[in-house]
Amino acid sequence: MSSMHREGVQKQIHQDWANREYIEVITASIKRITDFLNSFDMSCRSRLAVLNEKLSTLERRIDYLEACVTQGETLT
Amino acid sequence: MPLPKRSIEPVHVSRSVYQQDELQLVELETITNTALTNIIRQLSSLSKHAEDIFGELARDVGNISNRANSLQARIDHLSIKVTQLDSSMEDVPLTDITRKKGFRSTKVFDQKIFSHSTMPAPMLETYTMCDKPPPLNKLNNYRDDGKDGLKFYTDPNYFFELWRQEMLKDTERVMHDKGKKMNRPRQDGGNSCVNSAGNKKRVRKPHNTREKQRLIAIGHGETLMPNNINYQTPNSIVNMETAFGSVGVFESRQQRPNSIDLRNISNSELSSGDYYSSHAQTTTSNISAMVTNAVNQKTVSPGENENGIVSMHSMQRAEHSLHAEHVCDDEIFSENQNFCEQSGFFISEGIGTSGINSRMKTRPSQPPPAPPSNGSRNETPVSSNANTPTRIRNLPNNRDILPPPPPIPEGVINITPPRTHSVGNGNTSTGISLQLPKNKSSILLHLDNNNFTNSNLTNMSRPPIYQDLGLSPQAEHQHSKQKLANVAPPPPPPPPPLSQNEYISQGSIVDLTSTINGGIIKRISEETIDKKKHLPPSYDSRTDLMKAIRDGITLRKVEKCEQKEIERNTALHDVASILARRVAIELSESEESDSDDDSEGWMESTENSA
Predict the structure, then answer these.
(1) Do B29 and A19 touch (CB under 8 A)?
(2) Which residue does chain B place closest to A51, by CA atoms?
(3) Domain boundaries in chain B?
(4) Hey, is the C-beta of B280 within 8 angstroms of any chain A C-beta?
(5) Which of B8, B64, B71 is closest, CB to CB, to A34?
(6) B119-125 — which CB contacts under 8 Å span 24+ positions?
(7) Chain centroid to CA B570: how far?
(8) Residue B49: which of A37, A67, A69 has the nearest Cβ?
(9) Shortest Cα distance from A69 to chain B (angstroms)?
(10) Residue B374 distance to chain A (closest CA, Å)
(11) How many CB pairs under 8 A join A and B?
């Protein structure tokens, strides 16, 4: 009897360890996903910011060039 | 405390509330299942945030792509336009260039990035979860100071206002410092005025006596400077005469001081500066003797020179006054009468200069004529010397001649100048000087020069008393100025025709003087004529270029003023405008420092040159 009960407890514990490991894997993957999303967001935003800045300068230059070239009429 | 933009919930996956019974039966399995469910919630939350992230990124990327596409289209249009441009085909009018507005980009810099409106959506959600502030603004009706009660609890613009006030104070301080610096340049400007005087010095430099006179005047004191200048010019004349005696023009001049010494004691006294004391001692007998001498000399004086001179002056008068026609005819027979008038006129001058008649004070009013005389000095030293010394020497004569009969009224001055002209050269100078105030300073210079030449002629031919009587052009000029200023003169002739007439008159004078005195006078008169000829083109030389440039400048200034007004009305609540203003002020400050350096360089150069 006692041995039977002991085996049952061990089995539950093993199962619990397996479940916990599974949960750990899932949470770790969720963290990884979160990290990826954060890094992706940050990198995208930085790149988009750089691109936005370049676009702004380009638009200003184009404005100036259009103002230089055009006489009264608008190009766009 | 930094707030996370996105938070995944639930955080504690395995935590939950369990009942005792359940725990006893399936304890571990329940916990596992709870954790798994929370993990799934986390995943859902994560997917939601991920969708948000990707949505934001997609929106930004979409905006950027739209901008890039529009930019690409603009670049294409521009490239086509530029390739189609042909500089040889298009004529760009100069007016368009000058009238073109300064380019100003319509792009607005992002500002107030961290305000409530620019808050990202997930943060805004967390923000809306907060409790609203208590409605303290409802108590505003009961406040006496008119402040918003809610601002005491929460004020989102507090730090911006703090920053704005600080920045405005900084800008004001910078402006104040700038104003101080502007004051310094003003002081420098005063120095520059001194430098301008130094420039005059430099121009006068050929006349060493001028600088000496100037230094002596400074030594006497600044307040006495103008009077001293007038007085010291005679001294300079002597020096000038000695210096330029070889020229021949001054040969007559060299004889003058002797004549002055002989006939007018007061002249020497005046030159020595004791004139006033001696002037008080002059008796009527001296005056009467002077008058008789003058009359005799007029009668004795050969008619040739007088006639010629008188005709010249009469020409000038004819141009300036309506009585000129009578002048030529009335020259000889009205000599005595003219002399009487002249004497009276001089008396009035003497009174004015002596200070008996406070209304006629010529002394304080003398400084104004000085600048033209300077110009004449610069160009024709002879004439300037002639003018100043004669004036000063004549003053004593005038004073000595008569105890004050009331100063001849303006009508006499204005009307009789031709007659006085006929009487003597000095009178002619007076007549001209009467006209001078109406005309420009340049004209005055020329007239003085002409008078000088005339005086030279008379000096050559006539006894010196005439010179003494006649040559006080500036004094009488001021005299006439005062009279003209005090009493409404007969309608002054319009300036432009006067200048032309003076041209003609100068030409006649040149001819007459050349016949009489030789080439030197002619040269002087030619110089004056050339000077006059040079003057008008400065006004006439407005080419289209200059006009266009001026128009463009004025247009731009108007725009700037409007823009400044708009900025003042709208700005100061805007970060970009505040920063732009500050940057502009700093830039202008640096530019001013550069300009100060330049001005200092100029000053140094002028000082060195001087």
Answers:
(1) yes
(2) B64
(3) 1-83, 131-169
(4) no
(5) B8
(6) B120/B5, B120/B56, B121/B52, B122/B5, B122/B6, B122/B49, B122/B52, B123/B3, B123/B5
(7) 33
(8) A37
(9) 7
(10) 51
(11) 97
pLDDT one-digit tens code per residue, B10-38: 888 888 887 777 556 677 788 888 888 98
Cβ within 8 Å, pair A33-B46: yes
Q: Could you report the predicted ipTM of this complex, rounded to two decimals?
A: 0.87
Amino acid letter, residue B174: V
The reply to whether residue B13 touches residue A67, judged by beta carbons under 8 angstroms, is no
Residue pair A69/B83 in contact by the 8 Å Cβ criterion: no
> How far does the CA of residue B82 sit from the closest CA of chain A (Å)?
7
Alpha helical stretches, state H, B85-118 = 94-99
pTM over 0.90: no
Cα–Cα distance list, A65 to A59, B115, B137 (Å):
10, 34, 52
For residue B61, which of A59, A66, A55 has the smallest C-alpha distance? Answer: A55
Mean pLDDT value across residues B513-517: 46
* Cβ within 8 Å, pair A15-B28: yes
The alpha-carbon gap from B434 to the nearest alpha carbon of chain A, in Å, equals 58
The number of residues making up chain A comes to: 76
**What are the percentages of helix, strand and coil residues in chain B, rounded to 5?**
80, 0, 20
Distance from CA of B547 to the nearest CA of A (A): 22
Torsion of CA B207, B209, B213, B215, to 10 degrees: 80
Q: Closest chain B residue to A23 measured between Cα atoms?
A: B36
Type of residue at B559: E
Is-contact B404 B357, C-beta < 8 A?
yes
Residue B487 tokens read as 């009493």
Rounded to whole angstroms, the Cα distance separating B589 from A75 reads 38
CA distance B586 to B596: 15
pLDDT given at position A46: 92
DSSP for residue B489: P
pLDDT tens figures, A12-70: 888 888 888 988 888 888 888 888 888 988 998 899 899 888 988 888 888 888 887 77
Chain A residues touching B7 at Cβ < 8 A: none
Q: Do the chains contact at B82 and A15, CB–CB below 8 Å?
A: no
Q: Residue B10: is the preceding peptide bond cis (ω within 30°)?
A: yes
List B residues 22-61 in contact with A (Cβ-Cβ < 8 A): 28-29, 31-32, 35-36, 39, 42-43, 46, 49-50, 53, 56-57, 60-61
Residue showing tokens 């380009």: A58
Number of CB atoms found within 10 A of residue B303's CB? 10
* Residue B214 CB neighbour total at 10 angstroms: 19
CA distance B261 to A76: 91
Q: Residue B120, preceding bond cis, omega within 30 degrees? A: no
Q: Rounded to the nearest 5 degrees, what angle is found at the Cα of B205, between the Cα atoms of B203 and B210?
A: 105
